[in-house]
Amino acid sequence: MPEQLIWGMEVFLNGLMAGVLYALVALGFVLIFKASGIFNFSQGVMALFAALTLVGIMEGQVPFSHLINAAFGTEIHHFGWHVPAVAAILLTMVVMVALAWLVNQLIFRHLVNQEPIILFMATIGLAYFLEGFGDIMWGADIKKLDVGLPQGINSTIDEVTYNIFGYGFFIDNLDLWATAVAALLVIALVIFAQYTKQGRAMRAVADDHQAALSVGISLNFIWVMVWSLAGFVALVAGIMWGTKSGVQFSLSLIALKALPVLMLGGFTSIPGAIVGGLIIGVGEKLFEFIIGPMVGGATENWFAYVLALIFLVFRPQGLFGEKIIERV
Amino acid sequence: MLDATEGYITEDGRNIGGVVMEMHNITLRFGGVVAIKDISFDIREGEIRAIIGPNGAGKSSMLNVISGFYNPQEGEVWYKGAKRPPMKPYQVARQGIARTFQNIALFDGMSVLDNIMTGRIRQMQAGLLAQALWKGKAEQEEVENREAVEKIIDFLEIQHIRKTPVGRLPYGLKKRVELARALAAEPSILLLDEPMAGMNVEEKEDMSRFVLDVNDEFGTTIALIEHDMGVVMDLSDRVVVMDYGKKIGDGSPDEVRNNQAVIDAYLGVAHD
What we know:
The complex is a heterodimer of chains A (328) and B (272).
Chain A: H1 3-36, H2 43-58, H3 65-72, H4 85-106, H5 116-138, H6 155-165, H7 173-195, H8 197-207, H9 209-214, H10 219-245, H11 254-265, H12 270-290, H13 292-295, H14 303-314
Helix pairs in contact in A: 1-7, 1-10, 1-11, 1-12, 2-4, 2-5, 2-10, 4-10, 7-8, 7-10, 8-10, 11-12, 11-14
Chain B: E1 8-9, E2 15-16, E3 19-30, E4 33-44, E5 48-52, H1 59-66, E6 74-79, E7 82-83, H2 89-94, E8 97-99, H3 112-118, H4 128-133, H5 137-155, H6 171-184, E9 189-193, H7 201-218, E10 221-226, H8 229-235, E11 238-243, E12 246-251, H9 253-257, H10 260-267
Parallel strand pairs in B: 5-10, 5-11, 8-9, 9-10
Antiparallel strand pairs in B: 1-2, 3-4, 3-6, 6-7, 11-12
Helix pairs in contact in B: 3-6
């Protein structure tokens, strides 16, 4: 087998893994969009905020320590304890649920029946607020996140592929874990949406508010639940990205990469978010591998957006989205 | 005149019980517009109670007051012998008051079966994890709920469209699915907002039959709104007539038919 092809396969696999991470962020967007019609620009920042909170809790960091120190002239930064990863993840989830409740109570409850563009603007505001709030609360330095997920080359795959092709593939253990976690998450979400009362209620609210009310569904409860779910997905995405590249503020920019993913997959489809993520992941890695050298590289920065643009022209509802039919 | 707790038996042999809901001097305003003006009436258990009136008479507003979508500025709503505080629509629904809408409010993305299952939300108590794993109480509940829903599906003759997404159904069937969803809640009072609106003669006859059968078979108390006099007179035990937000008649179909104020409202006599 020619070397180029083998390398191409390795690139393809790595692209799939990267795609899983894109899909994780996109998933959070789809969840909120489906249930409330809000395009949540702050999903990426929520992932950052979740990761920051997780690190902060694990390291026993004092929240708002800069503010406290500046105000009182003290020098406290740490409580001096370490919280085990599992407990810290649970605590972070509590924080995310509280955040969901606050967001609904302070913002979206008051914007019921407003135009989508207004809701969208509100989420932009929320994104900037959360970014600043995360900064004040936990500090702006790049943090290392280690919840005990294995990292580094997977030796089994390396060996097996070496025996077959005479060339060992480099697949990161963390990527494999991310894939497994994403798969579990999607299965759990689908079971939740299809087979539980709350899931059915969530789909009901997405379809028709009045009808949902008339069968006894509380809109506020469902909205808080959906934002909590989005917070949970953000936490998972935050853990994966944070472990991979450190918890830093550029994490919120991943959210932008989720946009082309959504344009491909459709804003209303959970499988679409996954497939869209995989296509973007594989597409940009293969494109960089094959075409990159001819144009001087760095194609990963723009490939996804160009692909999304092409989709917007020819299939604006995405691969899996509901077809947009305007009746006259 | 009957006592509030006393019941009676109709000519066709159905049992009508005591008063289950009472509206006391309800007044509803939107800004300066008075939609309902000082209206009182009651609904008895097991009866078919109609609210009729010309367009814009305030019938739908009245239904929205009963179902909690509007809270009246004045007056009291009594339900099952207790005064009802101002409530959200979903709270009213959980008390066992189900409704349909004039312009059909269904969950278009879901199948007929799923739509009707949402009506059972009131009957589902199992915990989230139990539901997801389909274990214990959840399994038993799901089976019971499915049985109840299947019975209603049979009853309303919509077996053939059980798995069809609601968005694809024709108007008449959508109305029937909406009725099925409301019935699935096993409501104490079923509110129907113009169940015959926009239907052809055949569909109207079907719907009338279903309304009568539901009342007969399940003993469901039904309050319905119509502006088609003919349909209502055949269906209902008692009729409230509204015009310009006021009650102008209340009684059996025969009494209402011979009421001069009602005749005027329908034939269009100049208001002075």
